[in-house]
Specification:
single chain, alpha/beta, OB fold (Dihydrolipoamide Acetyltransferase, E2P), Rossmann fold, six-stranded mixed sheet, five-stranded antiparallel sheet, 10 helices, 13 strands, about 20% strand, rRNA-binding, zinc, metal-binding, hydrolase
């Protein structure tokens, strides 16, 4: 029978993680959720309160992870429980490895500022990451007080986000905040560029000034990274919130399923193409191109779809090449070891 402490339940502990932790329970270890990661150490919440622990024994701990903690005078994270969801992008270094932005997220709030022209291509890119994570995306249009009627913009955004709730808010006036909060469940993460108003919106959800905020440039609506760490905080209405630093670059990482959901309208049209492998360029009987000609689908959206598909295929090929290189390196290392072993044994004879 699944049971949990009130503290852990507030932070998202449920039967899924309880089952994953079962093997460690008899060893005197404790479950804990990572609230913040900082250079080999992290802050966690346990059923007995907050703890700071060493994370050098685990690979890639992230805010939102559920961890296995060895308590004591010097607490240590010994394992991470399997992630139910994870937001992953290409690493900022350009290496063929993914970077986890947040783990075990239930709702991804893609944050878009109305103080500057909406970049639909960026929005589609972030939605692909959100869908691929396994969480449910929501689009929140911030700074609605800086524009007039938002209905036209909301409709334009909704067309680029099929199957996703879109809501306009103003944290400054409170407009739309309650409607937005009603869409949120479980662990919520705010993602978007600097200056989108994530921290201001987070404070509105938290009901207090917990997150640092800063001004943005009037010329382009960009702001400084007032949020420098990913931090997890409990929401007064239930669930928890992860605020993230502004994303300058949003590279896809193995996001084929996320792209399929982001561009569900194009995928549906493509099912009626004459050829199963239609590339939607100039093929006869292409239902996608016909939709563009008829005005059902915009050329911009089709171009965005093609661009993101090419990018995802490229990063996937890099990942495959890296895995092949790692296998070859392991094979060579084993071969060298065997040669040295046989050479040594030959000398002994």
């Amino acid at each position: 029978m699944f049971e949990s402490s009130d503290v852990l339940a507030v932070y998202g502990w449920d039967e899924y993680f309880d089952d994953a932790f079962a093997a460690y329970r008899a060893e005197g270890l404790a479950p804990a959720r990572i609230v913040r990661v900082d250079r080999g150490r992290c802050d966690l919440v346990t059923e007995h309160g907050p703890v700071r622990a060493d994370t050098s024994r685990v690979n890639g701990p992230c805010t939102g992870d559920w961890a296995v903690l060895r308590p004591g005078d010097r607490p240590v994270v010994t394992h991470l429980l399997p992630r139910r969801t994870a937001i992953v992008r290409s690493s900022a270094s350009g290496r063929s490895q993914g970077q986890v932005l947040a783990a075990n997220v239930d709702t991804v709030a893609v944050t878009v500022s109305l103080a500057v022209p909406v970049d639909l291509g960026r929005l589609e890119r972030m939605l692909a990451l959100a869908w691929e994570s396994g969480a449910r995306p929501v689009v929140v249009l911030t700074k609605a007080d800086q524009v007039g009627d938002t209905a036209e913009i909301e409709a334009e955004v909704a067309a680029a986000a099929p199957g996703v709730d879109v809501v306009a808010v103003s944290a400054a006036t409170g407009f739309g905040v309650d409607a937005f909060a009603a869409l949120l469940t479980g662990t919520v993460v705010l993602i978007g560029p600097s200056g989108a108003g994530k921290s201001t919106l987070g404070n509105a959800l938290l009901g207090e000034e917990r997150l640092a905020t800063g001004a943005v440039r009037a010329s382009d609506g960009k702001g400084r990274h007032t949020t420098v760490h990913r931090e997890l905080l409990p929401l007064p209405g239930g669930g928890v919130l992860i605020d993230t630093p502004g994303l300058r670059g949003v590279g896809l990482w193995d996001a084929a399923d996320g792209l399929e959901q982001t561009f569900a309208d194009i995928e549906e049209l493509a099912a009626d193409c004459r050829f199963a492998d239609c590339g939607h360029h100039a093929e006869p009987g292409c239902a996608v191109l016909a939709a563009v000609e008829d005005g059902v689908l915009t050329r911009r959206r089709l171009d965005s779809y093609r661009k993101l598909l090419r990018e995802n295929e490229w990063i996937a090929s890099r990942s495959d090449a890296r895995l092949r290189a790692e296998r070859e390196n392991r094979y060579r290392a084993i071969s060298r070891s065997l040669r040295q072993k046989y050479k040594h044994e030959g000398r002994k004879r």
